[in-house]
């Protein structure tokens, strides 16, 4: 069959059966419990390799207007949008040694952003920066984070290599008491949490890890001291090393071709192949993106958001594989939203999806010389089951004689480590260095895991309050009983593949809440009725995608094969509609969350 040709009913039936059996090979009874967090005895996997010597400083006992927990793009955008509203004392508290969040931690060789830099990098209109490449290298993005921090003077009050350990509402002062692992205990009128969603490195449960005598680290803590080189490559330290990489997700696909250039031998331990589409990275002259027009970046990212949210849009400014996949989304989303017409939409989606996946499998055949190897690298699931990836060098790396693919699907992943190697299917593969490209705990923001305890009015513990009936918020940001606390992230609001855009809308909203409370001399706190109404909105049109995820290969999209979490977790009509809803609410109803202060101002 040629690529993109409509598959016949017989071919579709055969594909369905193949997808089912490939899923069965991979589902594990232990689901997400198969993973270990990088803490306690595995804590060294999460240590900061970039911060240098810890700088001693006396603990702080002062007071700020806003404490922002997290110095990634969420925190930086909150800081920037607060500054635009004239807020003076803004203190970002960040676990890493500098700003950047994901882009501070992920410096592995080959690291790039998968989403076009002109829509991904925030505040381009405001800072005047125009990215050089269509898909920016990680270091450019990290430098942009620093640029934003400098432009909005966020270094002045920032705390680095510092974790917030508790947030406690002081009713006598109408302030939050912010405690940290560096002994700080300072007051903040408002707290904004921006602790990220894919931040905690996770590791496979690894029998024998204590026995392994080789070197080992996670991709989000790359050890250039050991490998030499930089994100561009040149890892001379690997010239005489047998290296193993576990994992072939979005990170693995970027890092594997770079390590293949420098290692004496590379073993790639694959469990589920990713879909790897065309990258076509190139320099983009400013004129090409219309960067001479005011507001160009805002218009471009709105256009991108509409397309990837399945909204009608005539022009495609970014014109890449994300926006091309919008044609698939247009067929899939209605099948989630209109259960009665599901079969009809699903059938149309299935045909389009099969054509797309056939195209991607044909790409493997065309790129990998060894036929058996090519077969092992082919993805057998529907396109939207797993995060798509993009590379023009990934498949070619497997044509190199010193690169070996080890398929671990039948053993549900690597089985164990010995002193010198990795065991799969009874064979031991000798390695000097083992690198985990095994991803991150999903949705594990510090507040929701309990790592950052939050006590509101009357000492109420946020997680305790939520334990019985689930999380309760208004728009995902604010919660009754927890005044002046604004949570950024993906809980009970709307998300998108261009997450920095979502974070910017959230930051604008957070800054507007703070400004409104300041102007009114009030606290920000939604009523229980407002929370109930929001939960009802989430439930009313909640999309039914359980059937889709139940047929998908396991991964973090479907809780390792167990389906999506129960209950509505997101706004059902997508990010574009959510942003419009927020803008309307700010214009017409923001006063609803303003309540009188209890404490008398001193
Ligand atoms: P993922 O969770 O996507 O991938 C983890 C990989 O490790 C999978 O291939 C998984 O296999 C494999 N794995 C896990 N346990 C084992 C085991 N026991 N034995 C063998 N293999 C195992 O993590 P990533 O870091 O790749 O990506 C996480 C997310 O980060 C992405 O989905 C994306 O959202 C983001 N990202 C974004 C980038 C960008 O450019 N914007 C770049 C990189 C990441 P299996 O699939 O079978 O579970």
From TrEMBL:
The keyword NADP applies. The keyword Flavoprotein applies. Keywords: FAD, Flavoprotein, Monooxygenase, NADP, Oxidoreductase. Its cofactor is FAD. One of its GO terms (molecular function) is N,N-dimethylaniline monooxygenase activity. Belongs to the FAD-binding monooxygenase family. This is Predicted flavoprotein CzcO associated with the cation diffusion facilitator CzcD. It comes from Streptomyces zhaozhouensis.
């Amino acid at each position: 069959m040629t690529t993109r040709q409509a598959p016949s009913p017989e071919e579709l039936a055969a594909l369905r059966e193949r997808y089912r059996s490939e899923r069965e090979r991979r589902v594990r009874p232990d689901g997400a419990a198969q993973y270990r967090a990088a803490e306690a005895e595995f804590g060294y996997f999460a240590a900061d390799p970039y911060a240098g010597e810890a700088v001693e400083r006396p603990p702080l006992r002062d007071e700020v207007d806003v404490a922002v927990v997290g110095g990634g793009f969420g925190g930086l955008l909150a800081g920037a949008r607060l500054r635009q509203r004239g807020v003076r004392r803004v203190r970002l508290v960040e676990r890493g040694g500098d700003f950047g969040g994901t882009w501070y931690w992920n410096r592995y060789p080959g690291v790039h952003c998968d989403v076009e830099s002109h829509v991904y990098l925030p505040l381009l209109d405001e800072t005047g920066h125009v990215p050089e490449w269509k898909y920016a290298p990680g270091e450019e993005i990290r430098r942009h984070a620093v640029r934003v921090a400098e432009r909005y003077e966020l270094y002045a009050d920032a705390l680095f290599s510092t974790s917030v350990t508790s947030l406690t509402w002081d009713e006598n002062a109408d302030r939050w008491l912010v405690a940290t692992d560096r002994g700080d205990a300072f007051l903040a009128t408002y707290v904004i949490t921006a602790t990220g969603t894919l931040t905690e490195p996770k590791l496979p449960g690894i029998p024998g890890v204590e026995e392994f005598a080789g070197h080992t680290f996670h991709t989000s803590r790359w050890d250039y001291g050991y490998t030499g080189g930089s994100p561009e490559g040149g890892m001379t330290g690997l010239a005489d090393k047998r290296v193993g990489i576990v994992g072939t997700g979005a990170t693995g696909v970027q890092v594997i071709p770079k390590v293949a250039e420098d290692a004496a031998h590379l073993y790639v331990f694959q469990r589920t192949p990713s879909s790897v589409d065309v990258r076509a990275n190139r320099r983009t002259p400013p004129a090409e993106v219309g960067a001479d027009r005011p507001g160009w970046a805002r218009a471009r990212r709105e256009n991108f958001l509409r397309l990837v949210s399945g909204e009608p849009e005539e022009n495609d400014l970014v014109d890449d594989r994300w926006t091309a996949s919008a044609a698939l989304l247009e067929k899939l989303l209605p099948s989630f939203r209109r259960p009665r017409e599901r079969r009809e939409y699903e059938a149309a989606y299935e045909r389009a999806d099969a054509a797309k996946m056939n195209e991607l499998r044909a790409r493997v055949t065309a790129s990998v010389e060894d036929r058996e190897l090519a077969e092992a690298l082919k993805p057998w699931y529907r396109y939207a089951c797993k995060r798509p990836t993009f590379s023009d060098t990934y498949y070619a790396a497997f044509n190199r004689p010193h690169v070996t693919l080890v398929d671990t699907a039948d053993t549900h992943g690597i089985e164990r480590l010995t002193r010198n190697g990795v065991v799969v299917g009874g064979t031991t593969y000798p390695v000097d260095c083992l690198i985990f490209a095994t991803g991150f705990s999903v949705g594990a923001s510090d507040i929701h895991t309990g790592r950052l305890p939050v006590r509101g009015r009357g000492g109420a513990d946020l997680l305790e309050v939520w334990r019985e009936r689930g999380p309760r918020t208004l728009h995902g940001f604010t919660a009754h009983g927890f005044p002046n606390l604004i949570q950024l992230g993906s809980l009970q609001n709307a998300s998108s593949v261009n997450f920095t855009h979502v974070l910017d809308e959230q930051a604008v909203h957070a800054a507007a809440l703070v400004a409104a409370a300041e102007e009114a001399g009030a606290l920000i706190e939604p009523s229980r009725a407002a929370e109930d109404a929001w939960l009802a909105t989430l439930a009313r049109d909640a999309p039914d995608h359980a059937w889709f995820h139940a047929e998908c290969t396991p991964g973090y999209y479907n809780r390792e094969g167990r389906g999506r979490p129960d209950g509505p977790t997101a706004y059902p009509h997508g990010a574009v509609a959510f942003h419009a809803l927020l803008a309307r609410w700010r214009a017409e109803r923001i006063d609803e969350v303003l309540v009188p202060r209890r404490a008398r101002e001193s």
